Amino acid sequence: METEILPAANLVLQDTIERIFIEDVYADIPRGVFLVRGENVLLLGEIDLDKDDYIPEPYRKASAEEVHAVVVRKHQLSKRSDKVKQMKLQELGFEAEHSGEVLY
Prior knowledge:
By secondary structure, the chain is α+β, with helices and mostly antiparallel strands. It is 31% helix and 25% strand. The protein contains two helices and three strands. Strands 1-2-3 form a three-stranded mixed sheet. A hairpin with a 2-residue loop joins β1 and β2 (25-36). The longest helix has 28 residues, at 64-91. The two termini are 42 Å apart.
C-alpha cells in the first residue's frame, strides 16, 4: 500500500482576532497578520458570522487587561497547587517531572 503525501500550502490570515474565554469573562484581542505553515494545518473552515456574534451565558465581554489578569491569577494558583503536590510527592520519595538537574 502506497501512501501519497499531499503538498502543504501555507496560510496567511489577515485581521485575526483571538477570543479568550476564562471563568465567566471573555475578550477579543486583535492579533493582526498570522502566517501558518501548511504542515500545521489539519482543517480549515469558514465561520458563520451570525453564530460568532452569539456568546453563551454566563460569559460577559471584558477588556483584554481584565481577562489577562484572570489568566495570570489562575496560572499563579496552578503553580502554587503544583508546588504543594510536588512537595507531598517528594515526602513520599517521588521526584516530580522536570525538577531534576539538566545534564548536557
